[in-house]
Amino acid sequence: MNYEEFNHFCGSFAGTSHVVQWGNSDVWKVGGKVFAIGGWSDGSQAAFTFKTSNLNFDFLSDCEGYKPAPYFASRGMKWIQQVETSGKLDDDLKYYLSESYRIVASGLSKRRQRELGIEHLAEPRS
């Protein structure tokens, strides 16, 4: 996945907004809360950062192509950075970005969810 594909995918979720910040990174938010970051990597290699469940954080921290996200993970937050961007993990990335969106959006107040038209959020997918 490249940054253009990343931005298109993240923009497909309801109630999202996009800003460029933190060293020219593409930052995606729902209800003003960050759920995905494109960029913000060591060097010129593409990287995608997202929030995870505790279980996925533990699992992905030990998987090739992923690492605990700089800054976030060092502060105890469950964020992962995918640094393998050859395309072989694109389907996985779409799943984890979807889950990150769901986790963050589910944490919004019910009122805010209604305002954004996302009160129908489902339970985690298996």
Features:
126 residues, alpha+beta, Aspartate Aminotransferase, domain 1, six-stranded antiparallel beta sheet, 6 strands, 33% helix, 23% strand, globular, YjbR/MT2646/Rv2570-like, MmcQ/YjbR family DNA-binding protein, YjbR
User: In CATH, what is the class?
Assistant: Alpha Beta
The domain tally reads 1
Write down the CATH topology.
Aspartate Aminotransferase, domain 1
Q: How many strand elements?
A: 6
Mean pLDDT over the residues = 88
CATH arch. level architecture: Alpha-Beta Complex
Largest sheet: 6 strands, antiparallel
Provide the succession of SSEs: HEEEEHEEHH
Question: What's the shape?
Answer: globular
Helical content stands at 25-40%
Spatial strand sequence of the major β-sheet: 1-2-3-4-6-5
Walk me through what this model shows.
By secondary structure, this protein is α+β, with helices and mostly antiparallel strands. It has one domain: Aspartate Aminotransferase, domain 1, CATH 3.90.1150.30. The chain has helices at 3-11, 54-61, 90-106, 110-116; strands at 16-21, 25-30, 33-38, 48-51, 66-68, 79-82. It has a 6-stranded antiparallel sheet. A hairpin with a 2-residue loop joins strand 2 (25-30) and strand 3. The radius of gyration is 14 Å and the shape is globular. The mean pLDDT is 88. This is MmcQ/YjbR family DNA-binding protein. InterPro entries: YjbR, YjbR-like_sf, YjbR/MT2646/Rv2570-like. It holds the Pfam family YjbR.
